[in-house]
Amino acid sequence: FYVRASYQEGKLETRVSLLQSAVDEYNKAKNEFAAKATEEEIRLLRFQRRVEEEKGERVLGCSLHDTLHCLLTLGLHKQAEQLYKDFRVPDKRYWWLKLTALAEKEDWEELEKF
Amino acid sequence: MAAHLSYGRVNLNILREAARKDLREFLDKCAGSKAIVWDEYLTGPFGLIAQYSLLKEHEVEKMFTLKGGRLPAAEVKNIIFFVRPRLELMDIIAENVISEDKMRSPRDFHILFVPRRSLLCEQRLKERGVLGSFINVDEYILDLIPYDGDLLSMESEGAFRECYLENDQTSLYHTAKGLMTLQALYGTIPQIFGKGECARHVANMMLRMKREFAGCQTQVLPVFDTLLLLDRNVDLLTPLATQLTYEGLIDEIYGINNGYVKLPPEKFAQKKQGEGEKDLPTEPKKLQLNSAEELYAEIRDKNFNAVGAALSKKAKIISAAFEERHNAKTVGEIKQFVSQLPHMQAARTSLANHTSIAELIKDITSRQKIPPPLHPGLYLTLLHFSIIVVLCCISCVPPYVSASEAFFDNLTVEQEFMTGVDTDKVNTYIEDCIAQKDPLIKILRLVCMQSVCNNGLKQKVLDYYKREILQTYGYEHILTLNNLEKTGLLKLQTSTRNNYPTIRKTLKLWMEDANEQNPNDISYVYSGYAPLSVRLTQLLARPGWRSIEEVLKMLPGPHFEERQQLPAGLHKKRQQGENRTTLVFFLGGVTYAEIAALRFLSQMEDGGTEYVIATTKLINGTTWIKSLMDRLEEPPF
Predict the structure, then answer these.
(1) Of A7-11, B193-197, B233-237, B480-484, which range is least confident?
(2) Contact B431 A95 (CB under 8 A)
(3) How does it sit in the membrane (chain B) (predicted)?
(4) Which of A53, A103, B129, B631 has the most CB atoms around its CB within 10 Å?
(5) pLDDT digits (tens, 9 = 90+) for B251-278
(6) Mean per-residue pLDDT, B46-67
(7) A4–B632: do the CB atoms touch at under 8 Å?
(8) Which three-class secondary structure state does DSSP give residue A32?
(9) What are B366-412's pLDDT values in tens digits?
(10) Which residues have CB under 8 Å from B544's CB, separation 6+?
């Protein structure tokens, strides 16, 4: 089972390729949902890698939700906004997220704007 | 010591004694002083069979837990490993033995497999080159462990997962074996009923084993009249719901393990004068819970809302009893009073303990305020206004809602699902919980519950939930979701017809007027919902399953009836007014609330049947879902 194997891989590139095989398998098994979810995970991993390279923050391997949370507390609103659009996060959940993150940071100004 | 086991209708102490005898025989086989190395998982169940004192009588001097590397030093002749037949444990043992051989004078090694020896494990030991070091390789058959006067459990954690997810029938074999042991001690059970695939398998195995032993009939008068085998997947809904009996809530909140519960110590701190706040105990308080404790036996199965009243009544009785001393005039009377003192003191301690526990639970469950129902659209607009308000109240840390409110909201949603309100749409409460990243298991419980009550979810709804969960909690949970789908807890609605309402109506699973204080129906254990499994049991006794044939067909798996021939002369002649005894076996786990409901049925005056409960594992929704989860360890990048 490729998904399990992918988690034993420490290196990003090998993990992505294993997940890619998982996508193929899911497609063969006609499990559309799982195939799509796996593709999204690959995209997320790539995105996290980019952020790490650019900002030097460790977000790799987090869930989408945690990544967003992390970005928002760091004040990286542009990246967060982009993720939110790319992955079609439901509005309601995004708001909750933004709220908690900003409140934790006690960034009242940004809250007012929003 | 184990008096609570013999109170019930069936004396389960016989079973315990038989288990102890086997253990003693094995220990005596290894002459001389001994040290036992325990597979940690086994210590709990073993504690219910034999205390340390028994082991000590048989020259057991040291006990260790099994772990890699070298064994701790001990001057003993024999070293005995008590283990489950698991390959990974064999590797540890091999490591132990090899390092031991290098270090010290030779000693005798023994190994005891619980509950069965396995060829695979012995093979593994051979590969590691240590099998020859063992003088005794034996098995200790411990299938059904007596927990209480009317409760047996196999405590095999993975039973549900193995049967329904991995199609592994080992635990069913153990079940059948366990039932055979039981029949050897308590006589052949004449009637067997069952519902579900696994039940069918167990019954088949039992009948086959019986044929194999055809020569040696047990000459014991049957104690049980009926055996009912129930698959857990016949009733998936009940364990998902939050239990509302006293014992059930203790289990939901703190978890009961092998009859013990660990509680936060603050409430139990002994208040002594002159002592500062500093000396509060930090170790969790460990309490044993079973019917040996008079008070606990009385309140364990009550709905939590009725516990307070019972406790205060008890408090009055005890203080009245203490007041008696003023009335004692003659020496004889005083002597009598003093003789009762230990008993009264014990009663007072137990009362204090349970009052503390009840307080702890109350903190979490009490209905401080009932939130008004919010329209989803309105909710969003309100959200903006309430943000400012909320933010003023909280400094920065979630959770925003107090524990008791969360508990109550959760319950409301559960009850909506069970009564069939809006089960086909995405539930806003679940959405909110995901958004706030509440514990994953709570979410899974709710989503599964909605799926079960709706006979599967629509593609759109199901995919939405799954996507939300993966995005919030991480992609790795895709395997867990897959497992839930495989076991039928989460499924896609295939036919347009939802048969849950039919089942609910025919079996009267929802009672509007559940009476929590003085219950008249089993639905009190969930404040309205009558557990499906127990309802089936109740209907089997009266008027019989023939009347609900239609509904039985809707539930998964076959239903069947078998008879076992009794040797001539052992047919029991029933006296007038004597109750029948039924053994109900839950394959895949049972909850405390279900047990409470069955005890309630036993006590009903016109019930005519008493129940003894057996199961593969005592569960609640949380432990159950956990057993189905796949955890992936992530390596650091």
Answers:
(1) A7-11
(2) no
(3) Peripheral membrane protein
(4) A103
(5) 888 888 877 888 877 666 554 433 444 4
(6) 79
(7) yes
(8) helix
(9) 654 333 333 333 333 333 333 333 333 333 333 334 667 778 888 88
(10) none
Contacts of B636 in chain A (CB under 8 A): 10
A13-33 burial by CB neighbour count: b if 16+ within 10 A, else e? eebbebbeebbebbeeeeeeb
> Which residues have C-beta within 8 Å of that of residue B145, sequence separation ≥ 6?
B19, B45, B48, B49, B152, B153, B154, B155
Q: Which residues contact B156 (CB under 8 A, 6 or more apart)?
A: B171, B174, B616, B617
Question: Which of B383, B391, B473 is closest, CB to CB, to A63?
Answer: B473
Helix locations, B394-541, DSSP H: 403-419, 428-435, 440-453, 459-473, 478-486, 500-506, 532-541
| Tokens encoding B490 | 């989460």
* Cα of B385 to nearest chain A Cα, Å: 12
d(CA B298, CA B293): 9
b/e map of B256-273 (b: 16 or more CB within 10 Å)? Answer: bebbebebeeeebeeeee
* Chain A interface residues (partner B, CB cutoff 8 A): 3-4, 7-10, 12, 33-34, 37-38, 40-41, 44, 58, 60-66, 87, 89-90, 92-93, 95-97, 99-100, 103-104, 106, 111
* Host H or E run for residue A80: helix A77-86
Residue A103: predicted pLDDT = 62
Q: Order of strands across the sheet with B151-153?
A: B145-148, B151-153, B609-615, B580-587, B226-231, B191-195, B559-563
Contacts of B389 in chain A (CB under 8 A): none
The ipTM is: 0.80
Q: Is residue A41 pLDDT above 60, yes or no?
A: yes
Running DSSP on this structure, what letter comes out for residue B302?
Answer: S
Q: pTM (2 decimals)?
A: 0.81
Interchain CB contacts (distance < 8 Å): A and B: 81
Distances (CA, A) of B130 to A1, B81, B122, B381: 33, 13, 10, 71
